[in-house]
Amino acid sequence: MEGSEIADRLSRLRELVSGKRKILILTHLNPDPDALASAYGLRYLFKKWGINSVIAYEGVIGRPENRAMMRRLRIPLCSVKILEPRNFSVIAVVDAQPPSTNIPLSPNLLPTIVIDHHPIGKKSLLKRIPFVDIRPGYGSTSTIVASYILEAGIDLTPMVATALFYGIKSDTRDLGPSATPEDLRVANLLYPKVSLKVLSEIENPKLPREYFRILKEGIQNSVYFPPGLLVSDLGLLAYVDMVSVVADMLLRAEGIRWVLSMGEWKGTVFFSIRTVNGRRHNADKLARRLIRGISGGGAGGHEAMAGGKVELSNPDSGPEVRKRIKMRFVKELGSSWEKGIPFIGGEDAVRERKARVS
Ligand SMILES: [Mn+2]
């Protein structure tokens, strides 16, 4: 994007918030590092313009890295439940866009500002929002927010630079193939200001024992479907972020191109999709197909990583809904349910079966 275009957007943004006393910045549910960093960066930008704002979220911040990020960077967050969004004169949504069940906002309340990098959904709805900056090609929302701060010529503190850098890094799998030239350019500009010590503490936090228990289960439960698919159902979860932790971990297995992991948490089924093959089949589109026609479902994401959830109307229907999603995943990617073998020890199982037959 041209510098002049960013300057133009920046002055429109400033106009919208100038003189406003009650500004709410909302992340999506269960915010990830990109959502947290872009909210934090936006708050910093507003503050430098002399405007105060509040960051709010709903759900949990369970992943130890994300908790370390909150703690080390002192990101001021409050629960949206103790606020009345209606009372704010400006609502900004980062890393998500309406309409989405992933935004903790009543559907009849439209935000004033939307900054996001997910595929553009409903254009007619977005037209009614005064400031929309959605760049679906970008690897992260942090890239967009950082580009505002850089364009405005505002000095970055190490904490804000570290947050935004980590936001970009975590949404592009360590500045890997899903990072665009713009993500890399902005990350490079942030880098000299990043506190590498703090970044390392965020990326390598101490992990609770429960983490290893769930990880063990996630690996043990995973089922392999040729060619190159893994499905891991964690069942009932103690904390929801493990779904994505397990998905990220399993994608690193040799020969694996697609991973689906899932679990149930507080009456909702959550799932994560990861792929190294996002250009041919798209993880975002696949996630949407998996929940099609299932009531209470919502999904979205990017080429290489996506996720979704199904709010269960009947709490006992969890296993059935999970099975439906798993079977669809396997079928959509050209395999069949009957071909599933345990990922760990599966070769032994096949060998034994063969031995018994012969
Ligand atoms: Mn993001």
Secondary-structure blueprint:
Blueprint: H1 3-17, E1 23-26, H2 33-48, E2 54-57, H3 64-73, E3 78-79, E4 90-94, E5 113-116, H4 123-126, E6 131-134, H5 141-151, H6 158-171, H7 181-190, H8 196-203, H9 209-220, E7 223-225, E8 229-236, H10 242-251, E9 258-265, E10 268-275, H11 283-290, E11 297-301, E12 305-311, H12 318-332, E13 341-342, H13 346-357
Helix pairs in contact: 2-5, 2-6, 3-8, 5-6, 5-7, 6-7, 9-10
The protein binds manganese (II) ion.
Residues 34, 95, 117, 140-141, 171 line the site of manganese (II) ion.
Radius of gyration: 21 Å
Q: Which bin fits the share of residues in helices?
A: 40-55%
CATH class of the largest domain: Alpha Beta
Bound compounds, each kind once, are: manganese (II) ion
Count of DSSP strands: 13
Summed up:
The protein has 358 residues and is an alpha/beta fold. 41% of the residues lie in helices and 18% in strands. The termini are far apart.
Q: How is this structure best described in words?
A:
The chain is globular. The longest helix has 16 residues, at 33-48. It folds into two domains: 3-203, inorganic pyrophosphatase (n-terminal core), CATH 3.90.1640; 210-347, Diaminopimelate Epimerase, Chain A, domain 1. The chain has a seven-stranded mixed sheet, sandwiched between helices. It has a six-stranded parallel sheet with strand order 3-2-1-4-5-6, with helices on one face. The protein is of the alpha/beta class. Helix content is 41%, strand content 18%. A hairpin with a 2-residue loop joins strand 9 and strand 10. It starts with a helix and ends with a helix. The chain has 13 helices and 13 strands. The model has no long low-confidence stretch (mean pLDDT 92). Bound molecules: manganese (II) ion. Manganese (II) ion is lined by residues 34, 95, 117, 140-141, 171.
